[in-house]
Amino acid sequence: MTQIQEERTITYHTVELGPLSSAGHATATISEQNEAGEVHTHLLQVPAGLPGERVTIAVEAPPTPRPGRKRRHWKQRPPRVWITELHETSPLRIQAPCPVFGTCGGCQLQHMNYPAQLAWKRDVVRQLLQEVGHFADPPLLDTVACDNPWHYRNHMRFSVNREGQPGLTARGSHWVLPLAECPIAHEKINRALSVVNQHINPRPQVLIRCATANNQMLIQPAQNEEVTRQLAEKSIVVQEETMEEVLGGQTFRIRPSSFFQTNTAQAEKMAQMVLDGLLADQPAEKVSQMTVVDAYCGVGTFAALLAPHVGKVIAIEESASAIKDAQWNMRDVEHVEIIKGKVEDMLPGLSSQIDGFVIDPPRAGCQSIVLDALIQNPVARIIYVSCDPSTLARDLNILCNVSQAYRLRSVQPLDMFPQTAHIENVAVLERTTL
Ligand SMILES: C[S@@+](CC[C@H](N)C(=O)[O-])C[C@H]1O[C@@H](n2cnc3c(N)ncnc32)[C@H](O)[C@@H]1O
Fold first, then answer.
1. Which one of 270, 317, 346 would you pick to mutate in the ligand 1 pocket, going by the greatest count of ligand atoms within 8 A of its CB?
2. Domains along the chain?
3. Cα-atom radius of gyration of the chain, to the nearest Å?
């Protein structure tokens, strides 16, 4: 089959780069004149650039809809932009170790030194808390660094190309870059990849998840006997249904489709922040009587770690697989109630006799019904764990400024995803009325 590739115009511009966008790309403004002599200004995202740098960029016009295609389904893509020459570099620039950095869609910040990444993440959170959250002077702490900002990911989802090779996709496309290793993947995942990529993978994706506390690994789809044997030679024990990982001194069983934090070392720190935020400064006898809710509990990480300290834990989760794991993980704890369901359905019906909440929703943040329930029956403390600072800022504004039901005590950025633009936060809120 012959495929006719559309020819796309590439223009070159020498520019000074502006601030990083929240996606982690530098920005650039260019002006172009069309055939009618009209000048149009465009704000572009420049991957692998840094503010203040003087660079030449190539700008490839986005594809246009093919004749006959319904325009209704057409989604205009931004132009593809890449740096062709660096004239003046930023003092924050370092050599990115990955050969596909800038092309791969996985990392955005490998070219920026690590302290600068941490400072930039704090700055993004500050700006969002001010502009979206309406906190004039937010109580924002410094970003907690990851002790090793490389090889931290315990879970990788590789795409597979037509030749059956696993890799990561290029930014803004479905084009698979076959990989021998990835500098943010855990060393055990890279070891497994070096075996898996020697075989033809029949499915469009390969998921690899490893434990850091032992040699157990989950791989989907299941690999054949030969691959499993070769992995065993590399000391990797491929599990069939569940694997076990240790966090905060407790063992957690995890199924392939259950959520588990992807950076175990940082998750340890995060769990301690949750415990401290909820229980610190309170007399032991009061803590032992507390009823706390772990909403969006996943496999029960926070619930299990809170259980030894408090009177009762109610854990809520919608995923059937995570619920099975949570039940196993807390099988020996009597004072835990595990509820399968949506937080927005369960929360309004819960008793008002709750002393503290841990909420760790997906990126979209909390639904308004959840925020309403927290405002109607304010609890002494909420620990809001968030993987998206913009929805966190939106929800904190409702909980603290609009309703004035809570006071924001602290927001702690935690670098769960070094080398990427993703930002995790732990916010501590307390009820305004005692
Ligand atoms: C960010 S994860 C947090 C998991 C857990 N707190 C942890 O640290 O491992 C969010 C979890 O919320 C669950 N979830 C998503 N939407 C939900 C909803 N509306 N109600 C209940 N659980 C939900 C997901 O299945 C996922 O396990």
1. 317
2. 10-93 (2.40.50.140), 116-147+263-431 (3.40.50.150), 155-254 (2.40.50.1070)
3. 24
Q: Give helix 114-131 / helix 389-396 axis angle, nearest 10°.
A: 30
At residue 156's C-alpha, the angle toward residues 150 and 161, to 5°, is: 120
Q: Is the ipTM of this complex over 0.85?
A: yes
Active site residue 387: yes
**How many other β-carbons are positioned within 10 Å of the β-carbon of residue 245?**
23
DSSP string, 29-64: EEEEE-TTS-EEEEEEEETT--TT-EEEEEEEPPPP
pLDDT of 434 reads 67
* Residue 223, annotated as binding a ligand: no
Which residue stretches of the chain have pLDDT < 70?
1-6, 66-74, 351, 434
| Model pTM above 0.90 | yes
Determine contact, residues 416/393, Cβ cutoff 8 Å: no
Is 261 a known ligand-binding residue?
yes
